[in-house]
Amino acid sequence: MIDRADSVDFQLKLSEPTVAEFADGGSTTFVPAKFVPERANFDTVRLEGAWQVAYWPFAVPEAEIVGKVGGNVSWSEVAQPGKVFYYDPNTSPDKIPDWDRVSLAHIDPEDGAIIKRNVTVPGNWAGKKAFLRFEGIYPAGVVYFDGIKVGEQWSGLTPIEFDVTELATPGVHTVAIRLYRKHESVKLDMPRHALEFTGLCRAAFLHAVEPVHVSEMRLAPELADDYKTGHVTGEVTVRNSSGKSTEATVAVQIVDAKTNVIVEVPYSVSLGAGEEKTIEIDVPAGEVNTWNAEKPYLYAVRLRVIAPGQESQCLKETIGFRKFEMKDQRPLLNGNPVKFRGVNHLTFHPEGGMYTPEPWLRQCLTMMKRANVNAIRTHFFGPRELTDLCDELGIYLLQELPIDWGHPYFHESVHLGPVLHRMEACVRRDRNHPCVMVWSIGNENLPKTEEIHDVFFQHLALANEIVKKLDPTRPTMFPPPGPANKIMGIFETRIGDIADIHYSFKLIREFNETNVLSNPRTWEPTFETHTREELHKRGWSGVWFSSEYGIANKQPDLNGAAYLNLIADLDFDPLSGKNAQQTFVERMHSEWGLMHDDPTCLGGAYFCWIAAGAGDQWGWVRWGEDADWGILTGDLMPKPSFWALRELFCPVRFPDHVVWQPGSKEVKISIRNDYNGLDFSDLTFRLMRTAPAWGSMCRIFEDIPVSCPPGETVTVTLPMENTAGLDEGATSICRFIVLEPSGFRTIMADVLVISEENVDKRKSGTNGHNAARPNIPMPLGPDAVLD
Q: Residues 388, 369: contact at Cβ < 8 Å?
């Protein structure tokens, strides 16, 4: 029996699954979440490819199917990772008794399948420790090795590993998984967006290490206050699984992007038989290149483990040096202001379902970069490939840890163990990655009643505690529900370091005006009121984020259906005559504009980048939440909103027009730098001008020098040699093409030049925008006059 408040320490010390009773009533199952880092210089046995599958109900007992022989059942073949079950888009939900996309009440608890395949353990594994790793069994499964149960996983999005040393002798073996389509804690894993997917959603493999090996490591690359000098701190735990005492050396190297070894520091450790010890490391790296979205410079930490009687082992972890901090209620990265121009990324492939192959995922993230997106809120705990790609491409990750829509059950004791397992497994997997900026803990959790309020928030606090113990270097936040029923919204400041809000911005606008916040405590609803000062004393940093906003119709065929627009603070007339694109831009100017202009706001994550859907993109599709809200289609085609988002998210901000004083030979244009690590002098500002333009045609260009540090605004003075027509009310165009050092065009922007007199006419409602064009030659056709 344990005290509920001690659950975190109990989880972290766990060595095997344990059912524990709480002193105040109830019980839960705690499951270990550690895994051994793979060796960099050793082949693993991959389990991707063809598996046999038998579907429930089974003709013979399960015990006869999971072994090497396999029983008298009908087998078919299925590719894994990939779908074993999938939502049927051609069956209407009203034809399925008890259909419920959240609880999966319509699925029999025993429904599922058995998948299995043979694996060959190499002969050189003799005498080594062998482990079986699954990066994701969705939503749950029991794992067998040669018919012997080695463990089970009831968390579909998190990795789990089993020690199979005694079973994995050199030769041919059978790995089998009894898949379950639902389980008691399935609601934690967001099945409403998974479209009833069942199967391996991520990689699976066997790997081996020597008897003396690294059993876990936490690496924390740090920047000094000068934002130039780096060092790596952390812990490396070494285990001696042999039957005798030994001495071991762990040599820690920092390697740059050109594979040059910057520094090597050896650490010695004495280990008794079966003993495990943790080494505190602190390795200086000298002056380093920093990591950010614009310059994602990566280093590597290499660990060499040397012990008598065994071969040297090498482990490798990619790292980046960066300093993310919140000073005076301002988010800073490497000493400069930072704004997350984010989207929600729902892990879902149009054919593979919850399995997203790396080439598809790389193209998906490349499209984000092309849309000037620099941040992702995963909303599903994403695959390992996603984190690796964000490191490489330069994308800030708000990695969500899976606790979804917990209001009916989160207070129940039985779910506390699964929650802590999820927290531990996810943080252990990704805490060494530079792209992970924030741990986003759960999604839209609020207790139903006052009766369960205290234990509900105690469980949330325990989730926060275990994350902080595993990774004290990163901030946390708790995405809250948006407006519904009698609740205007929640500005979640009670738990975590960064406040969060969904969909409505009324609360933050009121809070900024009054410095008093009235937040819902429960769905009943009941409320509590706090001042800004009280919230800061509680530990809130003063920085806020919106991890979901937007949510509007993105069906390309329904671009004229602006009435399908959803949650917004703006009133909308369905007969306004606007199309969906106009409505989207209007809302984004209001909502993203607020987040962009508030220096205490870290940014936001538009919902969503791609909507989960089953079916054919050019045929019939059933969507995970019955609507297509994505900026891209599932096959990565940009919709009209892609181009609007790209313009709104551009880190180089121009005014839409400037005023020309009659008689003047120059015009001044203010340009803001929203990059984190690029000065405008690093960019190319290509200027094209015409007065006026025919269509979009501009021919003459020049590159102009512009300098401006991140987070600042510069005023550029341009000569106006040709002012023909401006004093009669026509406009002139200054067209900027902004090129990043890579050559990528971050934006093409037109700044209209309009006379002061014409501005006054427009304000008064007179004809200030329909002035006749000056009589100049049209640059088209065989008689065109070319300048």
A: no
